[in-house]
Amino acid sequence: MANHRKKPKIHSVKFNVLMNMLLTTSQMLFPLITLPYVSRILSTFGTGAVAYVQSVVLYFSMVALLGIQNYGIKVCAMVRDDIVELSKVVKELLVILLVSTSIVFAVYLLSIFLIPTFSQQRTLFLIFSVGFWLSSFGVEWFYQAIEQYGYITVRNIVFKFIGLILMFLFVHQSSDYIVYGITVLVAGYGMNILNLLRLRKLVDFSIRQRLEYKEHLKAMFWYSIASISSGMYTQTDIVALGFLGNINMVGLYQLVAKIKNVLIKAVNSVGNVMLPRISYYKANGDKQAIINLMAKNVNFIGVVSGALIGGTVLCSDSVVQLMGGKDFSGSVVPLMLAVPAILFSSLNIALGNELIADSREREWAILNVIGFTCSVVYAITFIYFFGVAGAAISNSLTELTVLVLRCSRGKGFIRQILPQTDYHKIGIVSVVSVFIALLLKSQLAFTPGFISLIVNGCCFMGIYCIGLVLAHELFVAEMIHSIIKR
After folding, report:
1. Model pTM greater than 0.70?
2. Residue 107, in any domain of the structure
3. Based on the structure, what is the number of domains in the chain?
4. Within a domain: 7
5. By CB neighbour count within 10 A (0-12 exposed, 13-18 middle, 19+ buried), where does 61 fall?
6. Could you tell me where the DSSP H helices lie in 324-410?
7. Exposed, middle or buried by CB within 10 Å (0-12, 13-18, 19+), for 485?
8. Is the residue at 371 inside a domain?
9. How far apart are CA 309 and CA 327, in angstroms?
């Protein structure tokens, strides 16, 4: 039976990167606008309660998703040119999700009524149960697989804007943290409703096909382990702080985590579009294209991470003052300790994408399980001795541990991409730039705030950019050459 559904247009990598950068910009602007307002209205308790519930819900969501957020991208990208086969794969994955989400949701409901720490925020947990289901059936993996980054970007920006309006309309006092949780839910998950409605235009549910689940379940086994452990180890710091500390400590640390996560998203604006394209190249046997793409991504990560880490360390007091206010002064040191994770996490994502595309899911999963185990040990140890700062240390150490393990297991591939990168130049320029900027900061001695952030940030970025140009760093040299050529 002929199928007349129109195939979505597949744009170039440059277009996808541009769209993802716009998406990342919106994801950065939303916290930048909301954090200063929410932090001052809700203080550490209100923001801490919402952040804690979000982290716990994410733990359950990771289990329910069974790694489909990565597995789905790969298998759908490989058959995206065949609408019949693509429809079959999507339907199979949706049925698997329905079963897994139903089982995990039952455990989730029992937990929020039986675990005392959860019961204290039962209302928030029940509200976020809507997000739990929307997370499972948001089918973001499908739209990423067919590289619909224009649609993804527009949809995200619209719902971020809706969430922003709701927040300013309804969050006015410290007791409004429940309402704030609802606005977070709308901004973060509301767009998934549109995903489901639009899915019928791109996937033919009318085709009668024999659905097969066995092969998916076998292939998804390692994806599930990897995704669950990875999702958990990135949230262990907040969840452990909630159990070992208190909600106010979580409030101090959630500011750090949000700033760090925004910066990681900025770095991964390129990396996030790589998995479907790498999977496509892999399916077509184009190994050199994979190496070239990965090398550019790694070099980009190095350049942008160097700028963000150096700038944040230098201006951490001003950033916290602007984002949180005086109640969050205890977040300054943890922020400085957390930002190295920007580089480690971004490289982990890039190398993890290569392992997935290369069908080395078992290795990817084992490394993530080790990372999760280390995150628990690090969190318990460092939070016990250093409190909020210990949570930041544990997160950075976890990402570094996983990165070292990935590099040791992928020596051959790394040797192929390193000659196309300038990691040594980036490292030297970053350290020298921070040192010079610190000397200038000590002479200027501005009070932490907006003026200090602008002056010290501009000084550092100017020194850093000049250093990269003088060092003839590959990424910067290519950008300059491209501008001159135009």
Report:
1. yes
2. yes
3. 1
4. no
5. buried
6. 332-338, 340-357, 361-386, 388-409
7. exposed
8. yes
9. 24
